[in-house]
Amino acid sequence: MGVNIRGRNYLKLLDYTTEEIRYLLDLSRDFKRMKRAGTPHPYLAGKQIVLLFEKTSTRTRCAFEVAGRDLGMGVTYLDPGSSQMGRKESIADTARVLGRMYDGIEYRGYDQKIVETLAEYAGVPVWNGLTDQFHPTQMLADLLTIEEKFGALKGLHLTYMGDARNNMGNSLMVACAKMGIHFTACAPKALFPAEELVETAREIGRKNGCRICLTEDIEEGAGNADVIYTDIWVSMGEPEEVWETRIKLLKPYQVNGEIMKLAKPQAIFMHCLPSFHDTNTTIGAEIANRFQLREMEVSDEVFESEQSVVFDEAENRMHTIKAVLYATLH
Ligand code: CP
Ligand code: NVA
User: Fold this and answer.
1) Is 150 helix (H, G, I), strand (E, B) or coil?
2) DSSP character at residue 194
3) Among 15, 70, 188, 276, which is least packed by CB within 10 angstroms?
4) Residue 251, helix vs strand vs coil
């Protein structure tokens, strides 16, 4: 039977089957080809979507805006602080209002429960543009990028170095389990993903022929990897004060030339971005001042190397989000 996800929410990959993810990746490739060829594809003309952001964004916002417009839709952006949600209006009420005006709602913000509540009350598809726990639109872009580089997904080894219990660590573990990619979280124990989620991912992985491993040991973690992935050490919404302990915990896990040498020779480096790989940002410069650390989760050398595919991932955010919009709204 063909895959049909029309009318569905896109809140986390745990809600999607391997076949449904495969369908979205194939659709993304089609949209990428059309975009590259300059073939117009306004298949959702006349529809309207709203982008509700409680945290800042470059890629996710722009990807939703361009994808929505390429599909012929009207797009409204609500920036952090400019809607009534939270302070003056409950999530359920906001969902019911937006659901009366729009054909779909994107949400970026804090707890996963917020996006789940929006979806419960909206009556139209809701898409998760990042919560504290999950970042599912990023996953499609990353899977597409890996597939473009290696020609397949199943059987590859992906190692995630760093804060393995954040939205990226959680999401990559689930994405790998769903697609049969061996996943290793290489992190200090204090930053391992929650046991319950690890168990769930292991169960999914068993069905798809891949292992989910956790290790503190860098040689064990990075050795044999096809993909080395990292993310920032302090995520949006976390307090300033955590920087000091986080740096102490994660400095040994910085992805640098030594780590890349442990991985396979053809290994690629991935990062969802934004990244602190130099001091050309306000926070990067502040950290350099306070902790004498000029590069954080990845060295500038690795970030700028031939192995780095970070800007392919960024471009693929748009093609994959377009696939999600089309598949759920057409
Ligand atoms: N990767 C990602 O979600 O980037 P933004 O925070 O810029 O949207
Ligand atoms: N873990 C990061 C991801 C940013 C795309 C954050 O939540 O800030």
Assistant:
1) helix
2) P
3) 15
4) helix
Give pTM, 2 decimals: 0.98
Within 10 Å of residue 211's Cβ, how many Cβ atoms?
14
Helical pair 282-291 and 242-250, crossing angle rounded to 10 deg: 80
In ligand 2, the atom with minimum distance to the C-alpha of 57 is 5
Query: Which residue in this structure is represented by tokens 């990959």?
Result: 13
Tell how far the Cα of 181 is from the centroid of ligand 1, in angstroms.
Answer: 23
Ligand 1 pocket residue status of 60, Cβ below 6 Å: yes
Q: Render pLDDT for 281-302 as a digit per residue (tens, 0 to 9).
A: 999 999 999 999 999 999 999 9
Q: What are phi and psi of 227, to 5 degrees?
A: -130, 130
Q: Counting Cβ atoms within 10 Å, is residue 73 exposed (0-12), middle (13-18) or buried (19+)?
A: buried
Model confidence band, residue 109 (pLDDT cutoffs 50, 70, 90): very high
Q: pLDDT band for position 1 (50/70/90)?
A: low
Q: Which atom of ligand 1 is nearest to the CA of 61?
A: 8
For the Cβ of 213 lying below 6 angstroms from any atom of ligand 1, the answer is no
Residue 6: how many CB atoms within 10 A of its CB?
10
Contact between 52 and 79 under an 8 Å Cβ cutoff? The reply is no
Query: In angstroms, rounded to a whole number, what is the distance separating the alpha carbons of residues 182 and 179?
Result: 9
Q: What percent of the chain has pLDDT over 90?
A: 97
What are the angstrom distances between the C-alpha of 69 and each of 60, 102, 109, 227? Answer: 14, 14, 23, 33
Residue 135's closest CA among 41, 59, 28, 238?
A: 59
Pairing of strands 182-186, 212-215: parallel
For the record, the structure tokens of 240 come out as 């300033």
Question: Which pairs with CB-CB distance under 8 Å and at least 24 residues apart come from 4-9?
Answer: 5/327, 5/328, 6/327, 6/328, 6/329, 6/330, 7/125, 7/328, 8/125, 8/328, 9/119, 9/125, 9/126, 9/127, 9/328
Q: How far apart are CA 319 and CA 323, in angstroms?
A: 6
- How many whole angstroms separate alpha carbon 118 and alpha carbon 70? 25
